[in-house]
Amino acid sequence: MQNNGQSHRGNTRPRRLLLCLDGVPHELIEVARNKGLFETFGAPTRLLSPFPTMTNVALSAMLRASPPAGYESLYFDRKARELRGGIKKYLGRRTPDKIPSSYMDELDYQEPLAFEFLVYVAPESVWRADMQRFRERFLAAPQTRDYFAFLKGTDGLLHSCGPARLSIALESLDRILREIQKVCGDETEIVLFSDHGMNLQENRRADLATHLRRQGFKLQSQLTAINDRSLSIPAFGLCSYAAAYCGDEAIVPEAADALSEVPGVDFSVYRDGQAVVIKAPRGAARIERRTGSPAGQPRSGERTTSARQGLPNGDPATADSVSYRYLNTTGDPLDLMTIVDTLRRNGKLDQEGFASDAAWFDQTHSHLYPDALRNIYTSLHTNRVKHTADVLVSLRDGYYYGWSPFGRVVRLAATHGNALRSSSNAFLMSTHRQLPSCVRADDADGLLKG
Q1: Less Cβ around it within 10 Å: N or C end of the chain?
Q2: CA Rg value for the chain
Q3: How far is it, in rounded angstroms, from Cα 344 to Cα 352?
Q4: pTM of the model
């Protein structure tokens, strides 16, 4: 990682250790701190992970890096119209085609490639080896530059063993970080963060494939024909989301309808022009985005915590000029109508039903679906991955979709991927700075590396 230790917004700053803990939710860091761990850190910020709440999606957003090809190692290539990647990504050594995003070029430490699979088979052995290897590598590194490390063992522990075993791992990490602070002193700031949260309950499989076949769809690894009812839904990790790709654009709404009917599905979402449509057992709704305030000027008092907050990557508009509208067609699939009423009473909603992105964020950053409108809208209208799905599915907590052989090997005590609060709430904390109480992933790069 490049050395940014000379200056920070005009002021000198300490050397920085960035340490990402895969899959550790905000609530478990709060529990750890209540037990006396990480006491030299400031209060943990809630870091909102983007939907789908997956490692490469989240870290590429947090670090302003290149988007990964797909949501996981097995992904659908829209140009080739077939599945690519898969288990081969976990075998052998790391090569350029096995680096999903440019953020990995900045890593000073990450586990050996084979451990990315073994962590879910032998999590106890892997996390112990991983933490010890990180400790040795960091202490041996030059003391004149920043250092960026990523520990994946925590994710495997939670998936396979649940929070009790993670608590033991965090105690070990706390001892390592105390040692590092003793060796390095105040010259090194430690920034500890995670990429996404986790729902902490036993999970069972949502049978998407069986339901879709009953509805007349054909699930295939290649979509070579057009004007048929073919779908491709990559099945890899045991996660609480799914991504569907349609052989014919005309069947996208019907596929979203069918997917929303599967037991365990919370909602499905697809693009409809410049809007997105949400289908759920609780009803249907549209999210629309507009650039420019009703009066042509930014609203006063609604500026977000940074000039970029709330904007899709590369969007030149200011944060105050972006607004969203939630139109519930039937029911209230995102449970937002009470918030719509609040925005209207407070004069934040214009005559067309739009409210600024900042106003929505203020009202929804702690919602059941954190930062609901912006997060779900941009999941399909920005390049979170190179090959964006036609339909994204968010499963309810307690359900997963993935590769069947993994399901037979791994006892799934927890998982992530959906748009709900448990998976969305990652954390961020520092030994040297007080951070905002809640930060979007797209705003994290300045706090992490600036």
Answers
A1: C
A2: 22
A3: 11
A4: 0.90
